[in-house]
Automatic annotation (TrEMBL), chain B:
SUPFAM superfamilies referenced in this protein's UniProt entry, alphabetically: ACP-like
Family matches, as Gene3D superfamilies: ACP-like (1.10.1200.10)
Pfam families: PP-binding
Protein name: Acyl carrier protein
PROSITE patterns in the record: CARRIER
Residue ranges of domain Carrier in the record: 3-82
InterPro entries: ACP-like_sf, PP-bd_ACP
Length: 594, 87
C-alpha cells in the first residue's frame, strides 16, 4: 500500500489494535484516509512522527516502509516480538521476510547451519538474536528497527522492559496497593477489549490455568455472544488439565471444544512442526498447539485470544520462586531445612520430591559466577540444559571450542541490569529471550500461522507491560505466591478454585512419542546412525544408546527428554532446510538500496 | 580387598548417562551433576542400580553428593557400605 502522494510504501504483517484512536487523532490533524485499515494508519503516523511512531502503536507488527523522499527503508518489529522479521544483507541487495524459508529461496543465500546458534539453543532453548540457525540470515530483535539508506544500515533499539532501580522502590502502603490493583484491572480489561476488535470470527484458548481463564472471563464480559473456547487435552493425567478446562468453560457459560492429542500424533506431526518453526527445539510443546490451531481453523475461527505473557509480566514462572528460595538458602549455607523448600516448588515433579536436602542444594547451586552472577536466576536451568551437549560429535566440539554461550549472553545485558531488583533481572531475561524466541514463536506465531490463525495476547499490551514493570517486586511475588497482584485485582472474574490455583506449567509428552512401535519411518530415519553421521552435529553411537535407553525404559528424565527432542529436531531441521534444497524455484525480487 | 566397583560404576554411567564411547573421559573425581551427566532422575536411576547390583539399601540420609556425585565417591561409599561391621 502507498501513502496519499505515493511517496511512502508499506508492507505489513500483523495488527495494530489502537488504530481507531490513532486514526481519529490523525484526522483531527488533517489526514484523510482512503481505507478503514490499520495499515494505512501506520503510514500516516509515520509521515507525521517518523520513527517515533513506533511508541504510539499498540499492536503486534512487523513492517517495512519505503520512504521515497528520504530514499530510506524503515523496518520495524513490535516491542515484545510477536511477529517475526528476518533479513539478509547481500552484495546485490537487502532482503527481508517473515519466514527464513522465504530468504532461503534467494540465489546466493545458502542454507548453511550455524553451529553457534545450535549451541545457544542447547543452552537457552533459543538463539540470541540477531543470530539464527542459518548463517547469513539475521533476525531483527524485538523492540528494534532498521534504517537502510544507500550509504548505511543502522539497527536501533526503541524499547526494552524498563524496571526501576532496586533501591528506589516505593514503600508499600495499603492505599498504594489498592491504586495499583485498580489501574491494573482497568488496563487489562481495556487490553482485552482492544484485542476483540476483529472482522473475522474469534475464540479463546483455555488451558485450565489462571491466565487463559482471566482472558476468557474478560472477553466473556465484553461481548454478548457465546464465547468459543479451544483446549488441548492429553490421555496421560500427568499432562491433562481437561477437568479444570471444563469447569472454567462452564463458569463462563462458554462453548468448550477439546482437541485430544496423543503421543502417537505428536510423533507423527513433529516433522511438519519443525518445518513451520524453522529451528531446532528441546521440547514437544509446539506440536499440540499446532494441532489445536489446525482445529481452530477447521472451525472457521481465525483469531484467538490467549494467556501467554502473564507469567513474564507478573512473575508467574516457578523459576522466579526458585531463584528467590535459592537466595534464601544461600544466605544460610549450613541449614539443612532451607533446601527442603526447593522440593516444594515442584509438586508436579515426583522425582524432585524424593531428593535429599544436600542433593537439592547441589541441583540448585548457582555454579557459574556464584551469587553475583547476572544470570544467577537462570543458572540451574541453563546448566541442566547444557547437559545435552554431551551428545555433540567430535566435529561440533572442535568448532565450538572456546565459545561460551553464557558469556555471550552476559555481554548483551544492558548497563542498568545490575541495578534492578533480582526479580526484575530474571523477568528481563525471560521477556527478552525465551518469550519471543520460543513461547511466542515456536509455540505461538509459527504454529498458529501455519494454519492461518492469528494469536492475540492481552497480557502483552505495551501499556500493561510498562505499568507492571513499575509494580514493586514483592507485590508480584508475595512470599511464594506468584502473580499475587494480578490474582488480587481480577479475582472476581474467576471461580475461586482457578483463581487460587498454583502455577501448573504447560507440558506435553516428550521422548516417549518417538520410540517404540509408533515410531514413524521419518523419525527412525532421522535418528539412524547413518543420518546422524551425515548431519555432522552429534555422536551417532551416543544417540543410538539414548534411543535404546528410551526403548528399554519408556519414560525418562528431563535431560534425556531434552536430548532426544533436541537431537531429533536438529536432524529434522537439517533434513528440511539444509540437506534437501533441490527443487525450490520461486525467487523473490531483491530490494536494492541503490 | 581388591574390587571392581570403580570400573562397573564407570560402565553403568557411560552406558546410561554419558552414552559415548569415550568412557574414560570422566575423571574419578569429576562431579556428575556439574558435568551434566545426571539430573534428579539420574540420581534415582543410580540408586536403583546400586541397590540392585550390590544388594544394598541406600538410606535416605546417605543420598548426598558426598556419597554419589562422582565415580570416586560412589566407590568409597560402596566400600564403606559393604565393609564387615566390627563389634
Amino acid at each position: 500500500m502507498s501513502g496519499p502522494d505515493r511517496s511512502t510504501w508499506i508492507t505489513f504483517n500483523g495488527e495494530i489494535f489502537n488504530y481507531v484512536e490513532l486514526r481519529d487523532e490523525l484526522r483531527r490533524k488533517g489526514h484523510s484516509f482512503r481505507t478503514g485499515s490499520d495499515t494505512e494508519v501506520i503510514l500516516h503516523l509515520y509521515e507525521e512522527e517518523g520513527e517515533a511512531c513506533l511508541l504510539r502503536l499498540n499492536g503486534d507488527f512487523a513492517f517495512a516502509i519505503w520512504d521515497e523522499r528520504r530514499q530510506r527503508l524503515f523496518i520495524a518489529r513490535d516491542r515484545i516480538g510477536v511477529r517475526p522479521i528476518y533479513y539478509a544483507e547481500r552484495p546485490d541487495g537487502f532482503y527481508f521476510a517473515s519466514e527464513m524459508k522465504a530468504l532461503l529461496e534467494v540465489p546466493g543465500i545458502d542454507a548453511e547451519p550455524d553451529p553457534f546458534a545450535v549451541d545457544q539453543i542447547f543452552t537457552f532453548w533459543v538463539c540470541l538474536p540477531p543470530r539464527t540457525p542459518f548463517r547469513g540470515i539475521s533476525e531483527l530483535p524485538p523492540g528494534h528497527f532498521i534504517t537502510l539508506t544507500p550509504d548505511r544500515m543502522e539497527i536501533r533499539r526503541y524499547w526494552q522492559p524498563a524496571y526501576p532501580d532496586a533501591h528506589s522502590a516505593r514503600e508499600w502502603s495499603r492505599p498504594y496497593e489498592e491504586r495499583l490493583k485498580e489501574e491494573l484491572r482497568a488496563l487489562f480489561l481495556d487490553s482485552v477489549k482492544l484485542r476483540l476488535r476483529s472482522d473475522v470470527p474469534y475464540g479463546a484458548y483455555l488451558s485450565g490455568g489462571l491466565d487463559s481463564s482471566l482472558v476468557g472471563a474478560a472477553a466473556n464480559r465484553l461481548v454478548d455472544s457465546e464465547l468459543r473456547t479451544f483446549s488441548v487435552t492429553f490421555e496421560d493425567p500427568e499432562f491433562d488439565e481437561s477437568s479444570l478446562q471444563r469447569k472454567m468453560a462452564a463458569a463462563l457459560q462458554a462453548r468448550y471444544e477439546a482437541v485430544p492429542v496423543s503421543t502417537d500424533e505428536i510423533g507423527r506431526l513433529f516433522p511438519q512442526v519443525i518445518d513451520s518453526i524453522e529451528q531446532p527445539v528441546l521440547r514437544t510443546g509446539a506440536v499440540p498447539l499446532y494441532r489445536l490451531a489446525g482445529h481452530v481453523r477447521e472451525c472457521g475461527v481465525k483469531v484467538v485470544l490467549t494467556g501467554e505473557g502473564a507469567d513474564e509480566v507478573f512473575a508467574g514462572y516457578d523459576l522466579f520462586k526458585e531463584a528467590k528460595v535459592r537466595r534464601f538458602v544461600d544466605r544460610q549455607p549450613g541449614s539443612s531445612r532451607r533446601p527442603r523448600l526447593l522440593s516444594r516448588l515442584y509438586p508436579y515433579l515426583p522425582r524432585m520430591q524424593q531428593q535429599s536436602a544436600p542433593f537439592l542444594r547441589a541441583f540448585f547451586s548457582p555454579g557459574g559466577q556464584g551469587a553475583g552472577d547476572p544470570l544467577y536466576s537462570h543458572m540451574p536451568r541453563f546448566r541442566s540444559t547444557a547437559g545435552i551437549k554431551l551428545f555433540y560429535g567430535q566435529e561440533t566440539r572442535e568448532t565450538l571450542k572456546g565459545y561460551d554461550a553464557l558469556a555471550d549472553l552476559r555481554d548483551r545485558l544492558p548497563a542498568e541490569f545490575t541495578r534492578w531488583h533480582p526479580l526484575s533481572q530474571a523477568q528481563y531475561l525471560e521477556m527478552t529471550y525465551l518469550l519471543p524466541g520460543y513461547i511466542l514463536s515456536s509455540q505461538g506465531d509459527r504454529v498458529a500461522m501455519a494454519h492461518g490463525v492469528e494469536s492475540r495476547y492481552p497480557f502483552l499490551d505495551p501499556r500493561l507491560i510498562d505499568f507492571a514493570a513499575q509494580i514493586p517486586p514483592e507485590l508480584k511475588l508475595r512470599g511464594l505466591r506468584e502473580k499475587h497482584i494480578l490474582r488480587e485485582s481480577l479475582k472476581d472474574l474467576l471461580p475461586r478454585e482457578i483463581g487460587d490455583r498454583p502455577k501448573q506449567p504447560y507440558r506435553a509428552p516428550e521422548g516417549e512419542c518417538f520410540v517404540g512401535p509408533q515410531q514413524s519411518d521419518e523419525v527412525r530415519d532421522a535418528l539412524s546412525p547413518n543420518t546422524i553421521a551425515r548431519g555432522g552435529f552429534f555422536d551417532p553411537g551416543a544417540v543410538q544408546q539414548l534411543v535404546s535407553k528410551f526403548a528399554l525404559k519408556g519414560r525418562l528424565g528431563q535431560r534425556d527428554n531434552m536430548a532426544l527432542v533436541g537431537v531429533l529436531s536438529t536432524q529434522l531441521w537439517h533434513r528440511a532446510f539444509i540437506g534437501n534444497r533441490d527443487g525450490r524455484t520461486a525467487v523473490p525480487s531483491p530490494i536494492t538500496a541503490s | 580387598m581388591p574390587d571392581d566397583f570403580d570400573s562397573s560404576i564407570r560402565d553403568f554411567i557411560a552406558e546410561n548417562f554419558l552414552f559415548r564411547a569415550d568412557r574414560n573421559s570422566i575423571a574419578d573425581d569429576e562431579s556428575l551433576l556439574e558435568s551434566g551427566l545426571i539430573d534428579s532422575t539420574g540420581v534415582l536411576e543410580l540408586i536403583a542400580f546400586l541397590e540392585q547390583r550390590y544388594g544394598i539399601t541406600v538410606a535416605d540420609e546417605e543420598i548426598i553428593p558426598d556419597n554419589l556425585d562422582s565415580i570416586g565417591n560412589i566407590g568409597n561409599y560402596l566400600r564403606l557400605k559393604r565393609a564387615p561391621v566390627r563389634a
